[in-house]
Amino acid sequence: MLSTRFILRALGVTLVTLVTCVGCDSASRRSVGLLGSTSLQPFAEVLGEHYAKKTPGQFVEVQGGGSTAGLQAASHGLADIGMCSRALTAEEIRHFTPILIARDGLAIVVNAENPVVGLSLGQLRALFAGRVLNWKDVGGKDGPVRPITREEGSGTRESFVRLVMGDDRISRRALTQESNGAVKELVKGDLSAIGYMSLGLVGNELKALRVDNVQPTVKNVLAGSYTLVRPLLFVTKGAPGPAAQKFVDFVLSPEGQGLLEAEGLVRAR
């Protein structure tokens, strides 16, 4: 879980942002505040920009902070919508309303110059658990393995643990980063690095590895052959308010779903 200090800091920044916006806005403008998953953040920003152009007088404020911070924000009324990039627990489902907006492949990424093109799920687990320390043991060049992981409270990390690690723990040797962007930059500049991130954010600068001989693509996610898949959720405390519901309706519309698909995600519908 995120530390209490981190959650309060993230929520505090968002609260100030939202209050400032409400205070300086005219009565004719309505805002929808989103906070949470840094994996979802860039996609929500794209959706918000299109929604504002399509709906004059409406705008969307998007903040990161992680999935746990998003749930806390929704719970305490500090955001209209929390963003969560993992499945909710049974306990969380009793307290929140999850809205599936898309599905996302979890890509395993290495430096573009790394000769390894694929790993088995067992090899992947061993690399992140610290049982395999040299790339030559999984078909690569002789050299150390530097795993890059996400911070506690990250939906991406929790999805990775659930889908890959099972009962194993991520090694303490793994370098922790607080966003997909930070993971991307580290892996891009380090031939020894291996990380995981949203498939929709990989781009052309990294190599996404096959897992159990299946390439991480939207097509394979849809077909069910690529199994490292997680839900991307909007989360509210009870039913969304009118302004939030209008934005949700746009996100789930053919236009909104098409935007997400164009960004590399898999449609919810």
Description:
With 269 residues, the chain is an alpha/beta fold. The protein is 39% helix and 23% strand. Helix 1 packs across helix 3 (67-75). It is elongated. The model is unreliable at 1-29 (pLDDT under 50).
Radius of gyration: 19 Å
Which fold does the CATH topology of the largest domain refer to? D-Maltodextrin-Binding Protein, domain 2
- The low-confidence parts are 1-29
Characterize the quaternary organization of these chains. single chain
Supply the number of helical segments.
10
Mean pLDDT metric: 88
Distance between the termini: 31 Å
- Helix content bin: 25-40%
Q: What overall form do the CA principal axes indicate?
A: elongated
State the fourth-level CATH superfamily of the largest domain: Periplasmic binding protein-like II
Q: Tell me the number of structural domains.
A: 2
SSE series:
HEHEHEHEEHEHEHEEEHEHHE
Given helix and strand content, the structural type is: alpha/beta
* CATH second-level architecture of the largest domain: 3-Layer(aba) Sandwich
Could you name the CATH class of the largest domain?
Alpha Beta
Number of strands: 12
Largest sheet: 10 strands, mixed
Give the DSSP E fraction (strand runs of 2 or more residues).
15-25%
